[in-house]
TrEMBL record:
GO biological process, one term: lipid A biosynthetic process
UniProt protein name: UDP-3-O-acylglucosamine N-acyltransferase
EC number per UniProt: 2.3.1.191
Ranges for domain UDP-3-O-[3-hydroxymyristoyl] glucosamine N-acyltransferase non-repeat region: 22-89
Gene: lpxD
Keywords noted in UniProt: Acyltransferase, Lipid A biosynthesis, Lipid biosynthesis, Lipid metabolism, Repeat, Transferase
Assembly notes: Homotrimer.
Record's catalysed reaction(s): a UDP-3-O-[(3R)-3-hydroxyacyl]-alpha-D-glucosamine + a (3R)-hydroxyacyl-[ACP] = a UDP-2-N,3-O-bis[(3R)-3-hydroxyacyl]-alpha-D-glucosamine + holo-[ACP] + H(+)
Pfam annotation, one family: Hexapep
Amino acid sequence: MKFTVQQIADILEGTIVGDSEMQVSKLSKIEEGEAGSISFLSNAKYTPYIYTTNASAVIVNEDFVPDQDLSTTLIKVEDSYSAFTKLLEYYQLIKFNKSGVEQPSFLHESVIHGDGLYLAAFAYVSQNVKLGENVKIFSQVHISDNVTIGDNCIIHAGAKIMSDTIIGNNVTIHAGAVVGADGFGFSPNADGTYNKIPQTGIVIIEDNVDIGALTTIDRATLGATVIKKGAKLDNQIQIGHNVEIGENTVIAAQTGVAGSTKVGKSCRIGGQVGISGHLTIGDNVGIQAQSGVGRNIKDNSVIQGSPAFDYGDWNRSYVYFKNLKKLDGRIADLEKKNS
C-alpha cells in the first residue's frame, strides 16, 4: 500500500520540507533506506546517514537543521522517535485490518462475535466462544470451548487457546503460544509412580497484554493463573499454574516461573531466569539474566546470580569469584609460612 508524504505528515501532525507528493510504501532504517521507503532520525550518531540515505522521506525533530544538501524529503515533528513509533502502530493496524471468514475454517454455530471478525483459513473456533469487536484470528489457531476474547485482539498463526480462558481487550498472542494447557500437577505414590492431579482452573489475561511466540501459560489447579494488564511476555516463556504476573511487568525470553508464585507490578525480568514456586516477588523488582530465584524478594530490589542475591553485592563478589584460583594459591602460601 502506498502513501504520499503529505498523508503521512497528516497522520503525524508534522510539517514537510521537500516533495509532499512523494510516495512511500515501506519502512526502513536510515542507513539502509531505499527509494520508496520512509525512515527516521532521532539518535545524533546516525546524522551522517541522512546525507547519504536513499530513503524517499525521513522523519526528524523540529529543531533539525541540515548542514549539507539533502536528497530526501523531511517530515519535521516534535519527537521523531515517538512519531515513527506511531507510524509503526499505524502500519500494523493496516497490515492486520482484515475481516471476514475464510474457508476452509470452522466457526461453531454457538459462537458470538462482534463486528470486524477475521478468521483465516484452517482456524478452528469451538462452541460457546465469545469474541469481541475487531478480533483477528490467523491460520491454524485453535480456540477451545467457552473461551472469551475481548475487543481488538490478535491471535497469530498456530496459537492454542484452551477451554475457559478469559482474555481482555487489546491483547496480542504471537505464533505458537499455548494458553490454558494443564499445569504440571502430579502426586507421588509409595511405589514411585505418579497420579495426575486434575487441573480444573482457568487462565485470565487482562487488557493490553502481549504474549510472545511459543510461550506457554498453564491453567490453574483451582482458581486462576492471571496475567495482569499491561504485562509483556517475550518468546519461549513458561508460566506455571496459579502464577500471577503483575501489571506492566516485562519478562524476557526463556524465563520460567513455577507454580503459585506471585510476581509484582512493574518488574523487569531478564532472559533465562528461573523462579521457584510459591514465592512472592515484590513490585518494581529487577532480576538480571540467568538468575535463579529461590526466595521471596522485597519491593524495589535488583538481584543477580544463582541463587540470586543483591545485584551490588553480586558485582562486588564477582571480583573474588574470578580470582578464586589466585586467592587459593595465596592462602596456601600463607599456610606454609605459618606451619
